[in-house]
UniProtKB/TrEMBL annotation:
<dbReference type="GO" id="GO:0051304">
    <property type="term" value="P:chromosome separation"/>
</dbReference>
<keyword id="KW-0159">Chromosome partition</keyword>
<dbReference type="InterPro" id="IPR036388">
    <property type="entry name" value="WH-like_DNA-bd_sf"/>
</dbReference>
<keyword id="KW-0963">Cytoplasm</keyword>
<dbReference type="InterPro" id="IPR005234">
    <property type="entry name" value="ScpB_csome_segregation"/>
</dbReference>
<keyword id="KW-0131">Cell cycle</keyword>
<keyword id="KW-0132">Cell division</keyword>
<protein>
    <submittedName>
        <fullName>Segregation and condensation protein B</fullName>
    </submittedName>
</protein>
<dbReference type="GO" id="GO:0051301">
    <property type="term" value="P:cell division"/>
</dbReference>
<dbReference type="InterPro" id="IPR036390">
    <property type="entry name" value="WH_DNA-bd_sf"/>
</dbReference>
<dbReference type="Pfam" id="PF04079">
    <property type="entry name" value="SMC_ScpB"/>
</dbReference>
Length: 197
């Protein structure tokens, strides 16, 4: 068991450095013991590595070291261009990210079209989506959620960091059709208010 703050800091640093995957607080405690303030130690380590070539980051309540974002291009190896996600896969990923946990039927209801099984397979192979159990309704459909790899790939600490509607509009990522439909919806709401008056 570690009692000295320096020993705890060094032990946490070593455990994270050799870990094969991001570690939760519980997993870290299994390595370094219960002595000391683990949250404060992680904050101190994170501050120590801020501005360096590697950073200590938290993704989905798990901690790991990663290359500083501004240096990632140095370590990127030339490789075959990976297959790009189809529009259907991107839409499905967005629905899962914003509405998780969500079933295939719920994804189809939001998209308005059927989801091909291959679409979910591609997202699971990429490591961004995982089965998250079964919905407690008749038929017990499988439900899906995003993974820590999804958060890490998109540089998110948690799902709360996903962009909102205003952010998407400001970035010009909403289709003009979406904006027109949104305007019609708002206008329809105004007309209904007028009729009620």
């Amino acid at each position: 068991m570690m009692h000295e703050p320096d020993d705890l800091l060094r032990a946490v640093e070593a455990a994270l450095f050799v870990a094969e995957h991001p570690l939760s607080l519980t997993e870290l405690r299994q390595h370094v013991g219960d002595g000391g303030d683990l949250s404060a130690t992680l904050a101190a380590l994170s501050g120590h590595y801020a501005g360096r070539g590697i950073n200590l980051v938290e993704r989905g309540e798990r901690w790991h070291f990663q290359t500083a974002a501004d240096l990632a291009h140095i370590l990127r190896r030339e490789k075959d261009e990976s297959r790009k996600l189809s529009r259907a896969a991107l839409e499905t990923l967005a629905i899962i990210a914003y509405h998780e946990p969500v079933s295939r039927a719920e994804i189809e209801a939001i998209r308005g079209v059927q989801v091909a099984k291959g679409t979910l397979d591609v997202l699971m192979e990429a490591g961004w989506v995982r089965p998250a159990g079964r919905r407690e309704v008749p038929g017990r459909p499988l439900i899906y959620a995003t993974t820590v790899e999804f958060l890490s790939h998109f540089g998110l600490s948690s799902r709360r960091d996903l962009p909102g509607l205003d952010d998407l509009r400001a970035a010009g990522l909403l289709d003009p059709v979406d904006l027109v439909l949104e305007g019609l919806g708002a206008q329809s709401g105004l007309e209904n208010d007028d009729e009620d008056a």
